[in-house]
Amino acid sequence: MEINANIEKLSNELKLSTITERYHTIATTAAKESWTYTQFLNELLQLEIDAKMKRSKTMLTKFAGFPAIKTLEEFDYNFTVGVNSKQIDELASLEFIKKHENIILLGQSGVGKTHLAIALAYKAVQNRFKVKFTSIADLLALASTAKREKKYNAFLKTVIMPSLLIIDEIGYFNMSKEEANHFFQIISKRYEKGSIVFTSNLVFSKWTAIFANDKVVTTAILDRVLHHSHIINIQGDSYRLKEKKEAGLFSSDILKNKEEITENSDKNS
């Protein structure tokens, strides 16, 4: 009894919580099945490391701040054009993170850009990479607040910290000159130091408008974003409209009208 109590005490001091909780059960099983000391020790240590890994992944997932959990297995390659499953499988090896490379996902709203971004990031979390998801609006709001409160350097340090940063929805609004400068600072800090996954509804030729029509800043940003990058241009209808159509809430005419509006917009731009 004293030995058992001492084992629990030592385990607690070493912060081996799983061994503390499971020691008696495993010891009973080991005695019944005549395990060797090595088998017994191996089982205890394996349980401890498995539990630590699970806790670590849970914490990293929470830190990432995903709006929802998406996986690569859920992505419908048959619905979109421009997404090569072989390329996605290669990216899923996560070598791009180790090499500090970027991924740029382009396409209109609803084609699966954010799904792929989250799915790759979630894969990274499962492999214990530190990841952070943010929309461009939230990121710039944090930057502006940090600047106003004289905490800008601390903010930039938090931007560098994750191995992978996902910046969602670039192009859904045009930035002010100050916001464009914030974005440039963020990109510059992470350049060749950490990977970024970008999602945007606009092709690069239209990015100047995003960054306050400042060609110098836009060129400087694109120079860093596109260097060491993987570009995936996704085409197709919106997943969300597809689901509504299948549910009988939208007709095919609505989808057709959406396509015509997009085409006319491209011609007039």
Question: Characteristics of this structure?
Answer:
269 residues; alpha/beta; Rossmann fold; five-stranded parallel β-sheet; 13 helices; 10% strand; elongated; disordered C terminus
Describe the protein.
The protein is α/β, with parallel strands linked by helices. It has two domains: 2-55, no CATH class; 65-236, Rossmann fold (3-Layer(aba) Sandwich). It contains 13 helices and five strands. It has a five-stranded parallel beta sheet with strand order 2-3-4-1-5. Strand 3, helix 9 and strand 4 form a beta-alpha-beta unit. The protein is elongated, with a radius of gyration of 24 Å. Mean pLDDT is 90; it is low at 258-269.
Low-confidence stretches: 258-269
Percent helix: 55-70%
Q: Strands across the major sheet, in which order?
A: 2-3-4-1-5
User: Count the strands?
Assistant: 5
Return the CATH architecture of the largest domain.
3-Layer(aba) Sandwich
